[in-house]
Amino acid sequence: MVSGYPREPQVPAQDAGAGQEDEWRNVRVMLNCISGMVEKTQSAISILQQRQADVVNIRATEDLVAEFQTKASNAIMEVKQAALEDIRQAEAQNNKKINDTQSNSKEESCWNCGRPATETCSGCSLARYCGPFLPA
User: Of 15, 44, 83, 134, which has fewest CB within 10 angstroms of its CB?
Assistant: First the structure.
């Protein structure tokens, strides 16, 4: 009996059996309710644990993606630098060929008109002309 609550009225003996059945029925209903709440609580805990595991997996995945992006960016920069170096080397070779060609063509072309040279200056032996050089 709880203090502060009035006493329950005394039930005659014949009604006591029916009252006890009602109490047992009420106890069963309360136990079923408590059992249902326990099952719902266990289900909620399972859902929360699954979500927590999902969050951990998402974070791990995000970390892997970030690491992959960093490595990919570094690889792209290396490829760009290698390509730029290749371009510089190709330009240097091209410029060398152009200079060599220009040097060779100066030596093999007429210094007056640029046509193919067939004659060399008899004085300096350097200047090239397309025909015999006749001073005017």
Answer: 134
Q: CB neighbours (10 Å) of residue 130? A: 16
The answer to whether the CB of 40 falls within 8 A of the CB of 48 is no
The pLDDT, as a whole number, for residue 76 is 96
Model pLDDT for residues 33-52, shown as the tens digit of each residue: 999 999 999 999 999 999 99
pTM: 0.42
DSSP string for 41-63: HHHHHHHHHHHHHHHHHHHHHHH
Check if the beta carbon of residue 116 is closer than 8 Å to that of residue 130.
yes
Can you count the helices (H) and strands (E) in the chain? 1, 2
